[in-house]
């Protein structure tokens, strides 16, 4: 890459903000990538003059850098084998389950690790080539934990940030990882290492102390080479503006009313919105809802449950099994309780555009976020940002990062099915005055701590690191 094409600020993430999709007739198009990471980073990237290094979501795509929506994109090619070993394998069948408290058993395969090292190096080299002298590189998430140290080797002049979007597990679990020391060394290549919750930062520092015997003082690690990375929580958030604006639009509000009518105008609509992932506790919430029907505490005429489960990681075994389990459970409950006019669970294994999501949030009286473990959970924040009418109740798992901030939600331990049933009933029966009181406080938190506040605080920490580096 020529000097003039280098950017002052480079984001590196497994995915580009857009995925290339090829229709059955061979026509190609681009669509927004799934997940919270892209949603959180896109608004900041539109403001800065930067480049984004990532994968376009398809095998063997050798694409030249291009600009989309004002963001310079640098695609990384992955072969079908690398997708199987680095992405589906090590990232999503080793690290993902291990870091989410082994809800599913992590698989440890040496070939997967080899591919992870190889692909991390490819991302690191592309980022190092794309970054201007004394620039900044911000690496994202668990797919790229080795990249910070690799970039540091290639480009000691650059200031490096790393943000971890998912949980970092307690040492007793982390210690299972056969490559636990290599991963810590990889992360410690960054100048600022950010986590979602204070507990994640504490877990990481405990691993650094116990495995590498580095000294840790006031959130700063001191390494033998004098490099001293800062480790801190920076809870991520959303860009609230589009949610607030869409929620006020007459056509979207009309669509919300139409959704209620389509569902037979039940008294209460419960909503779940997740990637179809075993960390999200979808089975637990389906079970709790099914038992409430079974016990006659609610009826399908009065309370409908809409579950949007967007397809995710469909070639990883644990996800294939999860889909079978959920669809069996949903079909059983619907078979037992549906009437010709009303359905118990309206299950949608699809992704929807943001307009439709906002209409769903507006139509929903109760939002169910029952993750067994979740780094943050931005769906909870999207629901709150949408409810300008100060109505609706949020049921929120205490095992999400969001629970640290959204104190006025109805908190729940999703493993406790009786407790979950009580929480759902509390939300269903919550008087409008209490909904309003809680929602106002939830909204205050989300609107004040939006994604701008998040990126600004991380970038400020990086600027401090750069100043420290210049002095040294
Ligand atoms: C989570 C992860 C992201 C990931 C997203 C979607 O939000 O933190 O890194 O991109 O899920 O998952 P996928 O495997 O489709 O990229």
Reading off the top of the CATH hierarchy, the class of the largest domain is best stated as Alpha Beta
- How many domain regions? 2
Helix content: 40-55%
Q: What characterizes the major β-sheet?
A: 8 strands, mixed
- Contiguous low-pLDDT stretches (5 residues minimum) are none
Please state the structural category: alpha/beta
Protein name: Trehalose-6-phosphate synthase
Family: Belongs to the glycosyltransferase 20 family.
Pfam families: Glyco_transf_20
GO molecular function, one term: alpha,alpha-trehalose-phosphate synthase (UDP-forming) activity
Report on this structure.
Belongs to the glycosyltransferase 20 family. One of its GO terms (molecular function) is alpha,alpha-trehalose-phosphate synthase (UDP-forming) activity. It holds the Pfam family Glyco_transf_20. One of its GO terms (biological process) is trehalose biosynthetic process. It comes from Microbacterium bovistercoris. There is one protein chain. With 472 residues, the chain is of the alpha/beta class. The chain folds into two domains: 3-236 and 452-471, 3-Layer(aba) Sandwich (Rossmann fold), CATH 3.40.50; 240-449, Glycogen Phosphorylase B (Rossmann fold, 3-Layer(aba) Sandwich), CATH 3.40.50. The chain has helices at residues 36-47, 80-99, 110-130, 147-154, 171-174, 180-187, 198-212, 240-248, 250-262, 282-294, 317-337, 354-363, 378-386, 417-428, 432-448, 451-471; strands at residues 7-15, 18-22, 28-32, 50-55, 66-68, 71-76, 131-140, 159-163, 192-195, 215-217, 220-222, 230-233, 268-275, 303-310, 345-348, 366-369, 393-397, 410-412. An eight-stranded mixed β-sheet has the order 5-6-4-1-7-8-9-12, with helices on both faces. A six-stranded parallel β-sheet has the order 15-14-13-16-17-18, sandwiched between helices. β16 (366-369), α13 and β17 (393-397) form a beta-alpha-beta unit. α10 packs parallel to α11. It is globular and about 65 Å long. The two termini are 29 Å apart. The mean pLDDT is 96. The chain binds 6-O-phosphono-alpha-D-glucopyranose (G6P). 6-O-phosphono-alpha-D-glucopyranose is lined by residues 15, 34-37, 92, 141, 165-166, 312-313. Residues 15, 34-37, 92, 141, 165-166, 312-313 line the site of 6-O-phosphono-alpha-D-glucopyranose (G6P).
């Amino acid at each position: 890459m020529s000097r003039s094409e280098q950017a002052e600020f480079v984001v590196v993430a497994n995915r580009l903000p857009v995925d290339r999709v090829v229709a059955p007739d061979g026509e190609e198009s681009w669509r927004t990538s799934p997940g919270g990471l892209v949603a959180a980073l896109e608004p900041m990237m539109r403001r800065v003059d930067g480049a984004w290094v990532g994968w376009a979501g398809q095998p063997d795509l050798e694409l030249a850098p291009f600009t989309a929506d004002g963001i310079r994109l640098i695609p990384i090619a992955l072969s079908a084998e690398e997708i199987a070993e680095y992405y589906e394998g090590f990232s999503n069948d080793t690290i993902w389950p291990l870091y989410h408290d082994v809800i599913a058993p992590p698989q440890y395969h040496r070939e997967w690790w080899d591919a992870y090292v190889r692909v991390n190096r490819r991302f690191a080299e592309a980022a190092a080539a794309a970054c201007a002298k004394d620039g900044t590189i911000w690496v994202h998430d668990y797919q790229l934990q080795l990249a910070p140290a690799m970039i540091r080797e290639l480009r000691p002049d650059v200031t490096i940030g790393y943000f971890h979007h998912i949980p970092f597990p307690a040492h007793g679990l982390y210690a299972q990882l056969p490559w636990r020391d290599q991963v810590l060394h990889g992360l410690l290549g960054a100048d600022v290492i950010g986590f979602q919750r204070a507990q994640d930062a504490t877990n990481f520092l405990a691993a650094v102390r116990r495995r590498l015997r580095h000294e840790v003082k006031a959130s700063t690690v001191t390494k033998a080479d004098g490099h001293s990375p800062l480790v801190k929580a920076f809870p991520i958030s959303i860009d609230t503006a589009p949610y607030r604006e869409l929620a006020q639009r007459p056509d979207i509000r009309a669509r919300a009313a139409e959704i209620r009518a389509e569902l037979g105008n039940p008294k209460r609509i419960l909503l779940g919105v997740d990637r179809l992932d075993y960390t999200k506790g979808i089975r637990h919430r389906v079970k709790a809802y099914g038992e409430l029907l079974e016990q006659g505490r609610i009826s399908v005429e009065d309370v409908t449950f809409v579950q949007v489960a967007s397809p995710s990681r469909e070639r990883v075994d644990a996800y294939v099994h999860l889909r079978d389990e959920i669809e069996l459970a949903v079909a059983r409950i619907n078979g037992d309780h549906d009437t010709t006019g009303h359905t118990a669970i309206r299950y949608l294994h699809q992704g929807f555009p943001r307009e439709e999501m906002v209409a769903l949030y507006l139509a929903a009286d109760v939002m169910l976020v029952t993750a067994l473990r979740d780094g943050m959970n931005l769906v909870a924040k999207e629901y709150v940002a949408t409810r300008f009418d100060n109505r609706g109740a949020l049921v929120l798992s205490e095992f999400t990062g969001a629970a640290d901030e959204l104190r006025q939600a109805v908190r729940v331990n999703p493993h406790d099915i009786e407790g979950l049933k009580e929480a759902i009933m509390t939300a269903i029966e919550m008087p409008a005055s209490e909904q309003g009181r809680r929602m106002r406080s939830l909204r205050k938190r989300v609107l004040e701590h939006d994604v701008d506040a998040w990126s600004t605080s991380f970038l400020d920490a990086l600027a401090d690191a750069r100043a420290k580096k210049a002095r040294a």
